[in-house]
Inverse folding.
């Protein structure tokens, strides 16, 4: 399969091929089991590492272990929005049907991850900060992200015409992206309660390897889990949208 | 290009002065809402000065939102929006003209009357000046951002609540820095920093928002 992709020299052709719902449906189905294997193995390593192998924190004791859900969820909340923005831009330039399917199916997932990040943060905040919620810059901007996700879903639901709804939500997705850097840099711009980033992509992370590795595994596991749910939802959406085309009819009959 | 910009503004003004009630609504809303707070919370001077920044800014923000859903609606319904798109002038310039006239017609009266509100909240002069400056820089940003939401929902019959949901998240930074200016003025600190940030938001909003508004309008008119 990889050879096939490399052989296609023409970038435009490549994009249109992967943007075609039929092609995507087929290969997404093939990718799914691999995603499942990756997610299960990463989750099993990550969870064992997080709950058993990693030593208790010297200050927070075992309470810190919620980081293994909180950080991946927060990471996903930003990552999914960035993916949706990317899809929206690609959709605007190349007018690909698939990009709107991504935006539509990823939005509720992003909202759930944002909600999860907020809830785990609140649970973690009570014993460590002494409060479930503060109007800290990071927390507030994350809450705004949740509202933007709601706005995206509501905008699509409100517009009866599918084509128009797709374009309008695309624009709104791109406009809403301004919030993502604000969330990311909020801990540096405003010195409030929420701590800075523990994991550094460039440079040394501020965590012992025994704690860090399970965290990275959990982040990857969350990504694959998201990939599984996204692909399944996208496949369903493709079938729903293309239910009048020949290949879907033939596929459903077989 | 500049000519059609001013033609749009003149048109908006003549339209607005033919429906004076619509013009006065945000202003009345602003005055009523702000004057309810001293009655509801406490007429104590200290408390009033404490809550003034938040109350004035939230009321100004909601007053801006109040008639925002009608910004492009009448143009959409009578077809003049299509004519604007078909005219050779870039749509973003025309959209900017619409936003400018909206700001001049709704926010400027509100800013003019705001010293009276500040007087009711017993604010000192220094803080009143801070309030005027923050509103002067902040409200155009509110109008620009709001117009995006208004353009996205132009074809919908009941867009009020949806528009609020779409736009309010983007109003939060403006609200934070707008009230930040006033709070800094109360605590006798320099408020130049927050004001400069509001100015930066304004520059960004004026340059980028018209493009988003134009893109949204183009899509919704095809509908």
């Amino acid at each position: 399969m990889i050879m096939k992709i490399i052989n296609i020299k023409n970038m435009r052709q490549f994009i249109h091929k992967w943007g075609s719902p039929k092609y995507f449906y087929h290969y997404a189905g093939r990718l799914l089991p691999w995603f499942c294997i990756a997610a299960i193995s990463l989750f099993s390593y990550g969870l064992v590492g997080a709950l058993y192998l990693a030593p208790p924190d010297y200050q927070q004791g075992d309470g810190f272990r919620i980081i293994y859900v909180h950080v991946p969820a927060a990471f996903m909340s930003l990552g999914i929005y960035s993916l949706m923005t990317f899809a929206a831009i690609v959709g605007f330039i190349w007018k690909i049907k698939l990009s709107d399917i991504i935006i539509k199916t990823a939005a509720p997932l992003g909202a759930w991850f944002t909600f999860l990040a907020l809830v785990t943060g609140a649970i973690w905040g009570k014993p460590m900060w002494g409060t479930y919620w503060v109007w800290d810059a990071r927390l507030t901007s994350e809450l705004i992200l949740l509202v933007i996700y709601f706005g995206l879903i509501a905008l699509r639901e409100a517009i009866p015409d599918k084509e128009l709804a797709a374009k309008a939500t695309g624009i709104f997705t791109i406009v809403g992206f301004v919030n993502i850097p604000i969330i990311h840099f909020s801990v540096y711009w405003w010195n409030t309660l929420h701590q800075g980033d523990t994991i550094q992509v460039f440079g040394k992370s501020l965590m012992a390897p025994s704690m860090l590795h399970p965290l990275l595994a959990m982040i990857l596991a969350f990504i694959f889990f998201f990939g599984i749910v996204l692909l399944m939802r996208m496949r369903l959406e493709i079938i729903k949208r293309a239910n009048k085309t020949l290949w879907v009819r033939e596929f459903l009959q077989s | 290009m500049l000519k059609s910009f001013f033609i749009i503004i003149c048109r908006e003004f003549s339209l607005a002065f033919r429906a004076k009630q619509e013009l006065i609504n945000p202003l009345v809303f602003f005055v009523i809402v702000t004057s309810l707070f001293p009655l509801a919370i406490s007429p104590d001077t200290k408390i009033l000065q404490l809550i003034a920044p938040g109350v004035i800014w939230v009321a100004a923000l909601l007053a801006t939102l109040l008639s925002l859903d009608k910004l492009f609606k009448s143009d959409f319904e009578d077809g003049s929006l299509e004519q604007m798109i078909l005219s050779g002038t870039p749509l973003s310039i025309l959209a900017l003209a619409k936003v400018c006239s909206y700001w001049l017609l709704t926010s400027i009266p509100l800013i003019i009357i705001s010293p009276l509100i500040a007087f009711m909240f017993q604010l000192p002069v220094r803080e009143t000046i801070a309030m005027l400056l923050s509103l002067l820089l902040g409200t155009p940003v509110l109008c620009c951002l709001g117009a995006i939401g208004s353009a996205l929902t132009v074809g919908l019959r009941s867009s009020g609540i949806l528009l609020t949901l779409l736009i309010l998240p983007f109003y939060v930074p403006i609200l934070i820095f707008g009230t930040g200016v006033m709070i800094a003025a109360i605590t006798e600190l320099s408020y130049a920093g927050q004001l400069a940030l509001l100015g930066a938001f304004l520059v960004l909003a004026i340059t980028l928002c018209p493009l988003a508004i134009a893109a949204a309008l183009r899509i919704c008119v095809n509908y």
Remarks:
- The first helix of chain B runs from residue 2 to 18.
